[in-house]
Amino acid sequence: MTRIPSKAEILDWIAAHPTHTSKRDIAKAFGIKGSDRIDLKRILKELEAEGHLEKRKKTYRDPERLPPVSVLQIKAPDGDGDLFARPLEWHGEGVEPIVLVMPRASDPALGEGDRILARLTVVQDAEYHYEARLIRRIGTNPRRVIGIFRKGDEGGRIVPIDKSASTEWAVAENATHGARDGELVEAEQAGPKSRLGLPRARVVDRLGDPSAPKAVSLIAIHQHGIPDHFPDEVIAEADAAKPMGLKGREDLRDLPLITIDPADARDHDDACYAHADDDPKNPGGHVIWVAIADVAAYVQPGSMLDREARKRGNSSYFPDRVVPMLPDRLSGDLCSLHEGVPRACVAVRMQIDADGNKIAHRFVRGLMRSAASLHYAEVQEAMDGAPTDRTGPFLEPVIKPLYAAYAALVKARAERQPLDLDLPERKIVLDEKGTVASVNFRDRLDAHKLIEEFMVLANVAAAETLIKKRTPLLFRVHEEPSPEKLEALRETARAAGLALAKGQVLQTRHLNALLHGAAGTDDAELINISTLRSMQQAYYGPENFGHFGLALRNYAHFTSPIRRYADLIVHRALITAHGWGDDGLDTAEIERLEQTATHISETERRSMMAERDTTDRYLAAYLAERVGNEFEGRISGIARFGAFVKLDETGADGLVPVRSIGREFFHFDAEAGTLMGADTGLIIAIGQRVKVRLAQATPVTGGLELELLSIDDKPMPAGGGGGRRSPAGRSVKRKSAKAKAKRSKIKRKVERKRRS
């Protein structure tokens, strides 16, 4: 007679083999045959009655475990980029199982909210309980919208705040989440989109008064999905951190390193010091020290802090707040190089010759003590002959040697010729209530340029060291412009009476010749904007393709590990390369460098868009009280639906809708970048000087609508009378050859007008 397994043995088998749980599978596993199957059936029924098992078709499973094929809902990627899912068929009483989704190369991309049917495998001795492999996707990620809730008789509707969204959303009475009329809400699509009527949504979060000053950045944070709350375990890990001592570090506390930052800086992650080189082999040379906060000492690979930092990718900065990559215990304290306080750092000592060329460098892991925390304006004022009680003691021993080293670096920069764009940066100044007090343009002092050059040099040193030591890292990559974008820039330059040569390997010096040729002319801003638009977007990558804009072959980000995860990766790489400790790059991190690069490049773009949208909303709020006023500006973009104008006073961008320009039809030429009036022949093109009237400002979306009054000091023509004409009414359906001839005619006319 075959031995019948105990109940415990059967339960263990089912737990270990969740895909082989039929009575036949169990009998086969224990060698049960013939009439002995009756006893097995009895035991299984007893286990079922006792609640240990439940029968599912012809299989048994532990009710505290998931079925081998389950419906899952995808969660947001974690800090490592891994996808976890919530099991929708979990009905147990304990902690919900953790399910890791294991995507294959052939699987479709999955996003937060997707519902999938997946095959599960139990995992032993891991941080998660199951691995899931996709069978098929059975749901989609609900679309999210941020908008103003308007209460109605049967629920309400949501007016999106996104300028590009024109469709409102209907909200059922049972899906308002208690939202009040006029309140800012976050909602998600409810059910499939209907062919008739408004799409339906349900409110998932109430964000408060949209007119409140601090709602401006909050809107952007929610709209772009920027994490703005640290989990409790991340905060606990940061709070447990202790200051680092001298053990295993080089003592740099006697070096008069100083930090130079904006007056309102929230952290201090870099310090510098320079002096004349006393090496007789380097006459007229300098020694430059750059010390950076040793964030890697506190953020260990794989820790909760590390996972959260990777998830965020970078800090996001807004006029009224910062969403940091690291909790304040680190970003504002232990990793901030405060004046007079010992702080762990990674520092690089660089030797440059009299012409600013780096001839040697070495990295150290040290302990420093900042001699002073200064800001740009006071350092520049001291150098310009107006030292204060704070800066006076540092003028001769520290500040002047810094500027002397910078003067040498300027020579090397002139020889290297990085791209020399002249585009002023806006600065929004808020009052105590959080409303816009003024909109200024940031100063570009030599103190700013000094720090920039020092940081660039340190970044180059980091990349060169890691390349030489063959240690994996993330490069900051900026590839050269595409041929198509270069040709568009060439056309713009030609229309302005300038030239960008063809038939040669493009270098930044060629673009600089164009920029310098336009300097001081009415076309200077146009050429600068067009050159910027021709550039590729910089990104992070494990492969080195150089940095075109800086005219550098080897470049990596090393100088801001408090606010950029890429820099933390480079710090860990330096730790590994020098054998400074066990907190460098681990194998798992090296294997996913490409994935990390893609992720943090995306988070960087996310922050840039959120910061830009916030600026637009603040500017719209600032200008809302000046509706009806006239402003000077320049055409900065052309689209089928109108022209974009950048206002001189604030740098704000507004739209002149094509429907508001005269009473004629305007032909849009994407290739030439123009709008041309069908009756008057009026041409609207990028770069033209204009006067406009502010017709509407909508702070909640950041939108500005403008009325065009004059172009290049010429008032707008009356247009072809009889009302606005449609394309069909003017028989503008032309064959391709005729269309091409028309575009050429427009281009020639544009050039004649620009040169006259």
TrEMBL record:
Family matches, as CDD domains: S1_RNase_R (cd04471)
Comp. bias regions, Basic residues: 731-756
Protein name: Ribonuclease R
PANTHER family per UniProt: DIS3-LIKE EXONUCLEASE 2, RIBONUCLEASE
Subcellular location: Cytoplasm
Sorted UniProt keywords: Cytoplasm, Exonuclease, Hydrolase, Nuclease, RNA-binding
Keyword Cell division attributed: no
Domain S1 motif: 628-709
Keyword flag Endoplasmic reticulum: no
EC number of this enzyme: 3.1.13.1
Matching PROSITE patterns: RIBONUCLEASE_II, S1
Function of the molecule: 3'-5' exoribonuclease that releases 5'-nucleoside monophosphates and is involved in maturation of structured RNAs.
Enzyme class, first EC level, given as a word: hydrolase
Signal peptide: none
Known catalytic reactions: Exonucleolytic cleavage in the 3'- to 5'-direction to yield nucleoside 5'-phosphates
Transmembrane segments: none
